[in-house]
Amino acid sequence: MRNLLALVVVGLIVYTVIDVVRSDERERLGLHKVLWVAFIVLLPVIGSVTWLLVRRTPGRRPGPGPGIRTVPQAPLAPDDDPEFLWRLEQERRRREREAGGAGPTSRTDPSDPTPPAAGPPADPADPTPTS
């Protein structure tokens, strides 16, 4: 029985050391690999259990393994899509101009089909000239 317990502890140490070495900085809570390995080797049971608890905390999803690239995902909802929001704002401004009978007050042309390169739509109340 005593030998089985020692074998389990050694297996736990080996598993957690390999897991620490293969982890990224985000999973290690910003600590260096050497510090985690030293903690696990010096305090085998406490260090290994602590690593397993820190590594498996809810709310943090582990990223892809080494060598795997992630592809940026498209927005899941229309209100997450900057191009959709830009078009919606242009349509709202066009309706306001048509309803009010006033001339164009916006610095952006609503008939322009291309969205701005980056950033939020221009604010018509902002007196700062652009370009």
From TrEMBL:
Residues 56-131 are annotated as: Disordered. It is a multi-pass membrane protein. Pfam families: PLDc_N. Keywords: Cell membrane, Membrane, Transmembrane, Transmembrane helix. InterPro entries: CLS_N. It is found in: Cell membrane. Its main location: membrane. The chain crosses the membrane at residues 33-54. Residues 12-56 form the Cardiolipin synthase N-terminal domain. GO terms for cellular component: plasma membrane. Residues 112-131 have a biased composition (Pro residues). Residues 84-99 have a biased composition (Basic and acidic residues). This is Cardiolipin synthase N-terminal domain-containing protein. It comes from Cellulomonas cellasea DSM 20118. The lineage of its organism: Bacteria, Bacillati, Actinomycetota, Actinomycetes, Micrococcales.
